[in-house]
Amino acid sequence: MKRAGLIAIPAVLIAAVAILALGTGAKDDDGAYRVRAIFDNAFTVIPGLDVKIAGVRVGQVESLDLTKDNKAAVVLRIDNKSFQDFRTDALCTIRPQGLIGEKFVECDPTLPRREGTPAPPELPVVPEGEPGAGQHLLPVSRTGKPVDIDLINDTLRLPYRERLTLILNELGTAVSGRGTELRAAIKRLNPGLQETDKVLKILAEQNETLGRLAEESDTALAPLAAERQRVAGFIQGADTTLQAQANSSEALEQSLQKLPTFLQELQPTMRQLSSLSDEAIPVIADLEAVAPQLSQFIEGLGPFSTAAIPATTSLGEAADTGGKALIASKGTIDQLGTLAENAAPASENLKALTESLEETGSFERILSLIFYAANSQNGFDDLGYYARGLILTELSATTYVTSKTTESRRIGEKLANPPKDENADASAASASAASTLKLPTEVTAPQKTRAPKEAVTPVSSSASGETQSSAEETVADYLLGGDS
Q1: Alpha-carbon distance 231 to 223, whole Å?
Q2: In terms of Cα–Cα distance, which of 398, 412, 413, 409 is closest to 453?
């Protein structure tokens, strides 16, 4: 009994290990879900390429291998647990990811089916002892790789065009003896034919539109036919551009790798631009409101420009004449330059003078002198300001001084001893106001009558000087409003 029990224990352990192996055979030791997809051709496929389902990245290409029948075995590691359930109707296709030739593997874990239809079984697991043991096996009948557009374009260029001709000529020799494999490859075209049927069905539904397109194509193509040389030049330029793009594929790839970072750095600028566009809405609305006026302005600008042609022509002629005058005045300009250089010391002295006048307040004093001098020659009475003046009635300076002296004395006596008559009160008020304001209430012009002969007799120099000094004092007192 003990011996039987000892024998049973190893048997149980072996069975448990077998069960675990079968239960986890679809995954490797790290627990990842791997699909071993067999392709006829895995050209340009490298480890690290993305595996996508419905445009969502779910994993990557882990490794590549070669089967015994010279097929490409691409191991797909599915990291997203939501898609770790590939069925026998799954499809995987190698597609181009961009213009630079990078690829990705697009897969459908299972095809769409109607509700209530049972799901196909899971993909079989590669048994132990074979390459890819423990991986889900997707047969070559469920994979595909379309021909890249750049390869199709290459067939139109030399020397690829000649090489394609050789391939087609030798096609019969190439497929001889491999009819079974060729028939199998044609059968694998069935998914592509189904997609072709869908395309043809869509075109059949649009047959009326296609009919109108065919009828109106002449009108649409007529301008192109007239510009066939330009169209041909465009095609040739496009060919040159594509060749340059193919030669710069590495630089383009680096630029595309930097594109996400650039877009992230562009986001703040785009937000500011969005704010600016929001703030510009009122401005645009205002511009829309004044659009008719702007249109009228632009329409009127044409006649204005036409009317300005003669003036512009005259301006050109004047410019020609002025240019000659400027050339002729070069000597004068040179002399002015020399004068400016020689006047530099005087300018410095003048600058120092004006700064000194400004610092000492001399400008204000000069203006005050002019102001007070002007006020000293003016008077003010009940009617307002008036200017004092003398009327010269004689050409003789001696007669003028004598008559002026006599008149000044008379005015002084009159102001000192006003006459007593019916206007005594008014005269007294005028005299009082004059003595208070230091200004006369009335200015009497000098008498036009000539002074007596004896009044104009010249006097001695000393007497004349005393008389002139007394007269000047009297006149100054009168002009300045002082007492006589």
Answers
A1: 10
A2: 398
- Poorest-confidence range of 44-53, 375-384, 455-464? 455-464
- Does the residue 328 lie in any domain? no
**Which DSSP symbol is given to 290?**
T
Q: Report the amino acid identity of residue 423.
A: N
Cβ neighbors of 231 (< 8 A, separation 6 or more) are 224
Is residue 232 located within the same domain as residue 147?
Answer: no
Both 143 and 30 in one domain: the answer is: yes
Asked whether the predicted pLDDT for residue 112 surpasses 80, the reply is yes
Confidence tier at 185 by pLDDT (50, 70, 90): confident
C-alpha of 157 from chain center: 44
Average pLDDT on 31-36 reads 88
What is the domain extent for residue 150? 26-154
Number of domains in the chain: 3
Instruction: Name the band, by pLDDT with cuts 50, 70 and 90, for residue 355.
Output: confident
Say if 190 falls within a structural domain.
no
Mean pLDDT value across residues 399-408 = 52
Q: What is the pLDDT of residue 408?
A: 53
Q: Same structural domain for residues 107 and 218?
A: no
pTM above 0.70, yes or no: no
Tell me whether residue 47 is in a domain. yes
Q: Let me know whether 43 and 135 are in one domain.
A: yes
Query: Do 91 and 145 meet the contact criterion of CB atoms below 8 Å apart?
Result: no
CA torsion through residues 451, 457, 458, 463, sign: negative
Phi, psi of 29 (to 5 degrees): -60, -30
> pLDDT tens digits, residue range 362-388?
878 888 888 887 777 777 777 776 666
CB 61 within 8 A of CB 75: yes
Shared-domain flag, residues 124 and 217: no
Q: Are residues 150 and 215 in the same domain?
A: no
d(Cα 4, Cα 434) in Å, to the nearest integer?
Answer: 159
Q: What is the CA radius of gyration of the chain?
A: 59
3-state secondary structure of 136: strand
- d(CA 451, CA 72) in angstroms, rounded, equals 146
